[in-house]
Design brief:
By secondary structure, this protein is α/β, with parallel strands linked by helices. It is built from 9 helices and 19 strands.
Length: about 375
């Protein structure tokens, strides 16, 4: 829910959520002194013959067009994708067009970023990319990237200062959420303004905490140390969503969650999604299962439990190669007490090739994707 606010149609970005929120609150959310039907403090004199002028009704709030939000899954630059960072402007190839078409595009960057450090001992897979990975995302039309995942610190805390410098240098071309110098910064939402509508995106990881596989718990940002936003205890995440919902028109929560390889969401995913929607999240999306899971309506929100891989070093199986971009048209609220609502959803269906990049599918393959989507929506307990 959000106050109406005016502004030009030019897109503006800010990672300094608190600053923009303060401006928006002061300029557009000033509470009234009392209820609209409050009695006057004095009555007109009985000798007054002229009738009181009728109060001018307030103007109707402007109708704002739906915001186009595109979400995609896991991206890294390992294996066959590594050389693509020699030219960040073309690193994601033709798939970039599907991201650029949106007003706000959000993905998960599933890799450590920067220089220095050593691979985490005991991890089977450790992913690494230079700061140019952030340039590649920005060039592909990505507006917000989550690094709240179980690979952001694959090269240890020794690399983290380099990572945070790269994140800061990438702004404002790209906002990175889910990682920061403190927990407060890691949970801070990215704000993108589109034609007067403010879209807030925040991220957190609730991935499996086996320290030999997914040591996100050891990587958690706290009040005293840097790291990623984790929500094993979702209290802070839910509070952030509630606070953000009071200040932005559309709230997107990107979660790293679920069981790898499982097509239907786990009970924990479904429970947390319900709590996030009730807290004010309009769109809840996620990754980590490395396969596409169901998407659809959940109460007043829209949930996509698993977006799968997007740019990945290997297509793997026919199931893990299935991917795409989920496009959502979100109508912002017209009133302070209203909720944003997804009015249209569609996939740009794709398949990961041997080059690691997603390519659009058509014909029978696209029809199979649509049928699969209906089946996954059912097992996820989501509406159309």
């Amino acid at each position: 829910m959000a106050c109406e606010r005016t502004g030009d149609v030019r897109r503006r970005r800010s990672t300094l959520a608190a600053g923009l929120v303060t401006v928006l609150t002061l300029t557009a959310c000033t509470p009234q002194d009392g209820p609209d039907d409050a009695a006057p403090t004095s009555t007109p004199s009985s000798t007054t013959s002229a009738p009181l002028p009728s109060p001018t009704p307030p103007p109707a709030p402007p109708v704002r067009r739906p915001v186009r939000i595109a979400v995609a899954g896991d991206i890294h630059f390992e294996g066959v994708l590594a050389d693509r960072l020699r030219d960040p402007a073309t690193a994601l190839g033709p798939a970039a067009a599907a991201l650029r078409a949106a007003d706000v595009a959000v993905v998960n960057l599933e890799t450590s970023v920067g220089t220095g450090g050593e691979p985490e001992a005991g991890k089977r897979f450790t992913f690494s990319a230079g700061p140019e990975a952030l340039d590649a995302l920005a060039a592909a039309g990505v507006d917000v990237a989550s690094m709240a995942n179980n690979h952001a610190l694959d090269f240890g805390r020794a690399r983290l200062p380099s990572t945070l410098r790269a994140v800061e240098d990438a702004a404002p071309a790209l906002d990175v959420v889910g990682i920061g110098r403190t927990a407060r910064q890691a949970f801070r939402p990215a704000l993108v303004e589109v034609g007067g509508t403010v879209v807030a995106t925040l991220a957190a990881s609730v991935a499996d905490q086996d320290p030999t596989a997914d040591p996100t718990g050891r990587w958690a940002a706290t009040d005293e140390r840097p790291g990623v936003a984790t929500a094993l205890d979702p209290t802070r995440l839910l509070a952030t969503v509630r606070r953000t919902d009071r200040r932005a028109d559309v709230v997107v929560a990107y979660l790293h969650w679920g069981v790898q390889g499982q097509r239907c969401p786990s009970a924990d995913q479904r429970s947390l999604a319900t709590r996030l929607v009730r807290a004010g999240a309009d769109v809840v999306v996620g990754s980590h299962a490395h396969v596409v899971q169901g998407d659809g309506r959940l109460g007043q929100g829209y949930v996509a439990y698993g977006l799968g891989n997007f740019a990945w070093y290997s297509p793997g199986t026919a199931t893990t190669a299935r991917t795409g971009v989920l496009n959502l048209a979100v109508r912002p609220p017209r009133e302070r007490a209203g909720r944003a609502r997804v009015v249209r959803s569609s996939w740009w269906p794709a398949r990961i090739g041997v080059d690691g990049l997603p390519s659009r599918v058509r014909g029978a393959d696209a029809e199979a994707f649509a049928a699969e989507r209906r089946s996954l929506r059912s097992c996820a307990g989501l509406g159309g």
